[in-house]
Amino acid sequence: MRILxxxxxxxxxxxxxxxxxxxxxxxxxxxxxxxxxxxxxxxGAKSQIEAQIASMGQNVVLVFSGSFNRGxxxxxxxxxxxxxxxxxxxxxxxxxxxxxxxxxxxxRAQIAAGNQNWNTSIQGESMxxxxxxxxxxxxxxxxxxxDVRNANKVAVIGKTxxxxxxxxxxxxxxxxxxxxxxxxxxxMLIAKGLSVQGQDxxxxxxxxxTSVMKRVQKVTTLNTIIVQTAKPSLLNPVQxxxxxxxxxxxxxxxxxxxxxxxxxxxxxxxxxxxQSNTMTALLTGVAVISLVVGGIGIMNIMLxxxxxxxxxxxxxxxxxxxxxxxLFQFLVEAVTLGVIGGIVGIGAGMITSKVLAxxxxxxxxxxxxxxxYAFLFSAAVGIFFGFYPARKASKLDxxxxxxxx
Length: 405
Prior knowledge:
Layout: H1 2-16, H2 18-54, E1 60-65, E2 69-70, E3 73-74, H3 85-94, E4 98-113, E5 116-125, H4 129-132, E6 137-140, H5 145-150, E7 154-157, H6 159-165, E8 175-178, E9 181-189, E10 204-208, H7 209-217, E11 224-229, H8 235-249, E12 260-264, H9 265-308, H10 310-318, H11 323-360, H12 368-394, H13 398-403
Parallel strand pairs: 5-10, 7-9
Antiparallel strand pairs: 1-11, 1-12, 2-3, 4-5, 4-8, 4-11, 6-9, 7-10, 8-9
């Protein structure tokens, strides 16, 4: 009963100064709200990046041409034609655990159909590409192994190409011209929409890699080799074996730089999310500082409250209240300020994250554990910053307190 009575006295004291109580909680509300909003937006961005990486397919290793150093000049990924079809065939033939492979040749070109034209991305791939990327068709069929062997003039197009070149028409069986070379549309991909970077994933044409190399680009080298392994545990072993095989094939002696770059899906995901994680941590750190400032505000107001209520404290002690009762009363007031501010801040943070997500077209995910963390942290702030004023109040001498003016 003594504890319940002390809690009622503490809550009654807070209600007597509603405006001051609200302003004191404001620091906690802003701090907790900022933490929740930043973590929510950061996790949403991370999940979007992870979804984009997952759209590459499962258990993927990418081999890029370039990344070499010759005569002081260093090339980046895809910066030089250092891979060829024989490299891809050797990887598929000699490395165990490889289930699918797609040599890739990429370019951009102006395409035309009838009186319509469009500038788009052109990708040369093998027929395994669609299984690796897990990208089904909405109409038609993919090209065949025979189309790849014979460099046939066939193409699978994205939804954007169909809308731009064949508005209101069925694109299957239509002719598109790429650098004056006619290609027959045999299939149309299911729409995927925008990527994390805001690029239209459906604005592309996929052809047999042999057709792109011979008929469009007129080159003998590849930009990339996409490799799929049987299971995730094989990613690192297969990656290392690819490096060893290509160094041997390209006659790269020990101590010399590779003229290619090999990355697995896990590494790409880590690189893609590193910047997002850094920014989230930085913004969350700033928000936590505002929480500490809110805690200092609680301490300041509680010290003022102790000073204002010195006579009240003396009267309570005179009629039998002990020091721990006074300590508990002021701790309850401080914790109440922190907890209520934390609860309102959690709601404000979730609303803010949703508003920002809607305005900027960002995803916003609030991890449930962070709601618990924010609640517990706000309570801890109330206890930490309220303990000193509460202890000061509990140590007052009743006689001096009663004489205080």
